[in-house]
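Summary for the steering committee. The consortium agreed at its last meeting that each partner would contribute one worked example illustrating the joint modelling workflow. Our contribution is presented below. We chose a case with several input lines so that the handling of multiple components could be demonstrated. No manual editing was applied between input and output; the record is shown as generated.
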Amino acid sequence: LEGPNVVLAAIRAGRQLETVFALRGDPVEEMVDDVVNVESEVLERLAPTQHPRGPVAVMAIPPSEPVVRSCLLLWSLADPGNVGTLIRTAAAFGMDVAVAGSGADPWAPKTLRAAAGGHFRTRIEIDASVASLKERGFTVVATVPRSGVGTDRLRDLANAAIAVGSEAHGLPADVIGQSDLLVTIPMPGKMESVNAAVAGAILAYELTRATPGAP
Amino acid sequence: LEGPNVVLAAIRAGRQLETVFALRGDPVEEMVDDVVNVESEVLERLAPTQHPRGPVAVMAIPPSEPVVRSCLLLWSLADPGNVGTLIRTAAAFGMDVAVAGSGADPWAPKTLRAAAGGHFRTRIEIDASVASLKERGFTVVATVPRSGVGTDRLRDLANAAIAVGSEAHGLPADVIGQSDLLVTIPMPGKMESVNAAVAGAILAYELTRATPGAP
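What follows is the complete predicted structure of the assembly.
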């Protein structure tokens, strides 16, 4: 974990950190008993980025946590920036996150940075499947570039899993086939598609805005 | 310009390319008269990424093009990925783009890649100002993290410039002060904010969906 946003979000969520490294005088010293003080050269070697912001912390990757409320279902998204952005977005809209297929690691350092602490304000289910989500009562919504129903159809859904596909290929045909509803974002302009994180975020916004009182 | 999406979008838009480099047999040869055939080692040296997809083209940065329809106003966004994502989003929603402040170059190679051809399907105005946009009849909408009106207020706007601030600092106080309307995206979850590109995209979606027949 790198930087104050991510490390402080983990601490505030009560997560167990193995080691916290920080420059002397870092505010994290007020929050954690055993901070290891290091020089800035050491911090740079510890962190995955070139010019890290302290503190830097080591945490065991937590186990998969099953989703219990409407969620974004990330299917083989390759870009850790997009995965992190959608974890942050789900947390902002009071949704959980399920990850499926063979995409970027949701707990990779780049993903954690892009999520800005979102990992510690939502549930992240690993190796999700459409069948399991449907068994648990979720309405699985596939995001498709054309021929789906309008986004206003999200309005009536209480427990939705909104599936977003990979940047290059979208959702696999079998996921689309198993889904309960296909939704297309109306785009009056001249592009074929928007970025995967943008598509997921628009549907998360639409779902949580449209359901009164939820979640 | 790197990769088929960006180079082909430029060609289809009738943009003047100075030189087009491609591997022998690249489909771009059907579209441009003077393709310079190169080996893959040369393509790798020409392109800004490590494993480029051909073709690679050189184009003079076009002059600023004043916005003439509702637009996203990008204020000092530092991340070229976010700037490119919002150019792609604006193009998808039939909006223009205005750039202001001191952010990432809208014509940088990283920005072009993230926009996936969006640069050639919208107008991009450089060095925009709130005063000039207002003089030209635009309603300037500032995106603020709290205390703004709801997003449904975008519904009645015909010519809106939606201002999105930098990733770290949001919009400057003077831009907020000069704006006609402050809008806040409702976030029922526990994050303070979403990614800047996500915020701009949600408002672009809301604006273009809510205005019947536009743009």
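Confidence is low (pLDDT under 50) at residues 211-215 of chain B. The beta strands of chain B are 19-22, 35-37, 56-58, 71-75, 96-100, 124-125, 139-143, 160-164, 181-183.
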